[in-house]
Amino acid sequence: MNIFKKTILTIFASLLLTTNVIADKVKIGTEGAYPPWNSKDSAGNLIGFEVDLANELCKIMGHECTIVEQDWDGMIPALLMRKFDAIMAGMSITAERQKVITFSQGYADEVAQLAVMKGSSLESMDTPSGINLSLGGSDVKKALKTLTSSLAGKTVCVQTATIHQNFLDSGDVGSVKVRTYKTQDEVNLDLTAGRCDAALAAAVAFTDYAEKSGEAVVLVGPTFSGGAFGNGVGVGIRQGGDDAIGTRDAKLLKDFNKAIDKARKQGIISKLAIKHFGFDASM
Fold first, then answer.
1. What's the mean pLDDT when you consider all of the chain?
2. SS3 228
3. pTM check: above 0.90
4. Are 198 and 114 in contact (CB under 8 A)?
5. ∠ CA 152-155-156 to the nearest 5 degrees?
6. What is the pLDDT of residue 34?
7. pLDDT for position 6
8. Distance CA 105, CA 108 (A)
């Protein structure tokens, strides 16, 4: 073997080794401000259901993972700009988001619900429970009609660029006064301060806040899923392309799906959900 061929083979082997090392390193973006899905402790460390689950999935995949913080409203743009490789941030799987990114299978259900302060006139709202907008039917129509009447003239606070804002802006519950905030923490604070008549988010976000703050936050109305609220929460990944990074993204999607399957079968997701939510929210 001449020196030229030997040099080429050496470089090729080195590139393969480098590619494999890079492929084993995965950066995951999360918000760090949506407890109990993801948040930060007093020392600034990222914690929560998805932080724990991400670490477990990475063990199963055999990848070396780093979890980084990213503001919610820049989450998808940052993924597309390749600042990280995947999103685990309580992000629901919706048709609108699937136009620009792809998702793993769902790993947890996120039901949405309205919250008010105890003593609110909205506490007496009479609606069917467990409304799946995708199914339609009389219960859905009744719930939307009741919400339209009850929320007329009210101010509802919500985190910006979320499925919850999309629902309120859809017109399904009439013309609601929507006030948006950058984080869920800001929503919670203005709800308790009386600047919102009600707020809309994942039900567990309100129960977690009420438990930790001691504030008299009460869930009202039906729990919502389906339709504008999506089909569960999954890992967001760039859509695979023809280049090397696109091929890696496609492989990463398969890796996450296999790991989620295994974590579900081993009861890992159920255990973490019960730890952080108080109930089994696994799909």
1. 91
2. helix
3. no
4. yes
5. 105
6. 97
7. 44
8. 9
**C-alpha span between 277 and 283 (Å, rounded):** 14
DSSP string of 73-120, one letter each residue: GGHHHHHHTTS-SEE-SS-B--TTGGGTEEE----B---EEEEEETT-
Token pair of 268, please? 């890992």
pLDDT digits (tens, 9 = 90+) for 220-258: 999 999 999 999 999 999 997 778 888 999 999 999 999
Question: What are the tokens at 261?
Answer: 């399957």
Going through the chain in order, the beta strands assigned E by DSSP cover 25-30, 39-40, 46-47, 64-69, 86-87, 101-103, 112-117, 131-132, 155-159, 177-181, 198-202, 217-225, 236-238
Quote the CA–CA distance of 202 and 214 in Å, as a whole number.
18
Strand, coil or helix: what is 174?
coil
What is the predicted pLDDT for the residue at 218?
Answer: 96
Q: How does pLDDT run across 130-144, given as a tens digit for each residue?
A: 899 999 899 999 999
Q: Please, what is the angle between helix 244-265 and helix 49-61, to 10°?
A: 110
Residue 234 CA to residue 94 CA, distance in Å, equals 10
**How far is CA 78 from each of CA 9, 93, 101, 165, 187, rounded to the nearest angstrom?**
36, 18, 12, 21, 24
Residues of the chain with pLDDT under 70: 1-23
